[in-house]
Amino acid sequence: ASGASIAGQQAGPGSSHRLLPGETGFFDIAFEGVLSLDSALKEGAFDPKLYVPLEFSEPPAAADLSVAAVVNESNLYRSLTITALEARPASSGHILSALLTNSGTEQSEIVQIQLAYFDPEGRIAATGSAFLEGDLKPGQSRSIEVDIPKATENFVVAELGPDAVRTNLKVENAFDRRLAPRYLPGFVPLPSETGFSGVAVTYSAMNFRPLF
Q1: Phi-psi category of 75—alpha, beta or left, where left has phi over 0 and alpha has psi -120 to 50?
Q2: For 153-175, b where at least 16 C-beta lie within 10 A, e where not — what string?
Q3: Residue 75 CB: number of other CB atoms within 10 A?
Q4: How far is it, in rounded angstroms, from Cα 115 to Cα 187?
Q5: What is the pLDDT of residue 139?
Q6: Where are the beta strands (DSSP E) in the chain?
Q7: What are the backbone dihedrals phi and psi of residue 43, each rounded to the nearest 5 degrees, phi first?
Q8: pLDDT tens digits along 194-209
Q9: Against a cut of 0.90, is the pTM above it?
Q10: Do the Cβ atoms of 127 and 146 come closer than 8 Å?
Q11: What count of other Cβ atoms lies within 10 Å of the Cβ of residue 197?
Q12: Is 117 exposed, middle or buried, given 0-12, 13-18 or 19+ CB atoms closer than 10 A?
C-alpha cells in the first residue's frame, strides 16, 4: 500500500511463443521459492537446494510486468488445424483431448499446443502446454491428450487498466483489460465440475528444414 516493492522475480521461458501480428499468447509466472538464508543462519550451514515459498510482509497492492521479445522470420508454420476438442472425466480428474491435422503443404516439426483456462469471471486462471509426439506430414493427423489442472482460488492483486499497459513504451488506449474468451481462437467451454468456464487453445510449430 505504501508503494514500496516487496518482491521481484525474473523468469526463464517454460513455453516459447511465436506470435504473428494480431495473434494472442498465454503465459504465467510461477514463484518457485527463494533460498532460505534465515534457515542457513539457524542451522549453521547453507544448503543451496533448500527453497522456501515466497512470503510477503504485507498483502500486495499492485503488480508490474515487463515483457521483451525478438523478431523471428522462421518457424512460423500456421497450417495446422485443431479439431475434436473434448473434455472428459478421468481417474486423475479431467482430460482434454484434441486432433491436430496438417492441412498445409510442408512437414511440421515440434508442434506445441498452448492452453489458457478461464475462471467463471472470464479471467485466465491457469495455463499449460504440451508437445505433440512426432512430426506431422502434409495431410497427416494425430491426437493429443492433456490433463486439465485442478482449479484453485486465485487472488487478484490488481486489475490492469489502459494506463498500466505499454507497447513499445507507448500507452495503448485501445487495450482491453480483459480478453473476452469467446472471441479467442480455439475457445471451448468446459464442464462446470472442472472449475473452469472454458479453455482457449493455440499452437506453435516449426517447419521441417533438413540441413543436408
Answers
A1: left
A2: eeeeeeeeeeeeeeeeeeeeeee
A3: 15
A4: 9
A5: 95
A6: 34-35, 51-52, 80-90, 93-102, 108-118, 124-131, 141-147, 166-167, 170-171, 188-189, 198-207
A7: -90, -10
A8: 999 999 888 888 886 6
A9: no
A10: no
A11: 19
A12: buried
Q: Please check whether residue 26 is in contact with residue 124, taking contact to mean a CB–CB distance below 8 angstroms.
A: yes
Burial 83-112 (b: 16+ CB within 10 A, else e): eeeebeeeeeebebebebbbebeebbbbbb
Whole-angstrom Cα distance, residue 189 to residue 208?
34
Q: In the beta sheet, which residues pair with residue 128?
A: 115
117 in Cβ contact with 148 (< 8 Å) = yes
**pLDDT tens digits for 148-194?**
998 887 777 667 666 666 666 555 544 444 455 655 667 888 998 99
Q: Cα 117 vs. chain centroid, distance in angstroms?
A: 9
- Residue at grid coordinates 521459492: 33
d(CA 98, CA 148): 13
